[in-house]
Amino acid sequence: MTQLRSQMRRAAATDATVFIVGESGTGKEVVARAIHAASGRRDGPFVAVNCGAINGGLAHAQLFGHEKGSFTGALSQHCGYLEHASAGTLFLDEVTEMPLDLQVQFLRVLESGTYERVGGSDVLRANVRLLCASNQDPAAAVASGRLREDFFHRLLVVPLRVPPLRERAEDVTALAQYFLDEMNASHGTAKRFSRRMLESLAIHDWPGNVRELRNVVQRAFIVSDDVLDSDFLDRARQALRAQCEDGVLHLPVGTPLARMQRELILATLAHHHGDKRRTAATLGITLKTLYNRLEHYGRS
Q: CA 186 to CA 206: how far, in whole Å?
């Protein structure tokens, strides 16, 4: 993390494109916001876009904007994400999920620095600093054809990797205390961790990374009086545990339907090594529906 912070400071001092790679929940957007806050564009807007959730038919209009009457429903001129981020930073999250035709259009913007709104003829200049992120290996996305190679090389100027929480176990207690301090300050309380809970936090492997840790602390904070105890973590792990062996998910009879859906989606996502597009195809749902479900589960 010390090395990552050093790399972030160096990246912030330039306007170069940064490609942040890390598992879900590691804090890629936090890294992106920190780079923006330390950059010369700190007084400009920070606009975050989830590329996997962009509406396919309206993707170009969402990103570049559109003119009145350019398509059905375009009742007025609309500024796109690129225009909203002018003089600031545009953060493309899950960039490996960007549709291929949109990658072509965005590549032209990166190369020329100009673009046009959908249905317009005025040439606009893009004055943004670009940061992007993915929980996928971008080289694997190129190999599978989901990410154009020329687009990939244009984005990969400054690569940053955010390590998963299991690789920095010494940070768990400090982060947990930080989250608890925040909650105490917000609610005017003085709650503390029991020794047992601190020990439980230290031995957990945190597949959901920092996001999971924060949720565990928040859940324990809500149901505790003065001392947050390890039982809460143990019960949560037991309640959420589903057996998955050799590609087969085992759930007990009587499992609530919503819980079954959650476990099936997460198990399929893990089976496909985090590849959301393949997961959606396997489950027979749209990529947008998958993103909505994962956001609901706190795993987006």
A: 25
Judged by DSSP in three states, 127 sits in: coil
Q: Report d(CA 102, CA 119) in Å as an integer.
A: 16
- Which candidate, 83, 144, 277, 55, places its Cα nearest to that of 152? 144
Token code pair at residue 231: 């039982």
For residue 20, give the H/E element and its range.
strand 18-21
Could you give the CA distance from residue 219 to residue 223 in angstroms, rounded to a whole number? 7
Distance CA 263, CA 91 (A): 30
CATH topology for 2-161 is Rossmann fold (3.40.50)
Domain limits, the chain? 2-161, 165-240, 243-296
- Kindly write down the DSSP assignment for every residue of 23-60, as one continuous string: -TTS-HHHHHHHHHHTSTTTTS-EEEEEGGGS-GGGHH
CA 244 to chain centre: 25
What one-letter code names the amino acid at 30?
V
Q: Does domain 165-240 have CATH number 1.10.8.60?
A: yes
Is 23 in contact with 164 (CB distance < 8 Å)? Answer: yes
pLDDT mean by block of 10 residues, the chain; 300 residues: 94 95 92 96 95 75 72 66 91 92 87 78 84 92 92 93 89 94 96 90 84 92 90 57 67 75 85 86 90 74
Which superfamily does CATH assign the domain made up of 243-296 to?
A: Homeodomain-like (1.10.10.60)
pTM: 0.75
Question: Residue 97 is encoded by which pair of tokens?
Answer: 């999920």
**For residues 62 and 5, what is the distance between their CA atoms, to the nearest angstrom?**
32
CA distance 144 to 179: 39
Q: Please, which residues have CB within 8 angstroms of residue 139's CB and are 6 or more apart in sequence? A: 152
**DSSP helix/strand/coil, 123:** coil
Nearest residue to 21 (alpha-carbon basis) of 120, 139, 101, 125: 139
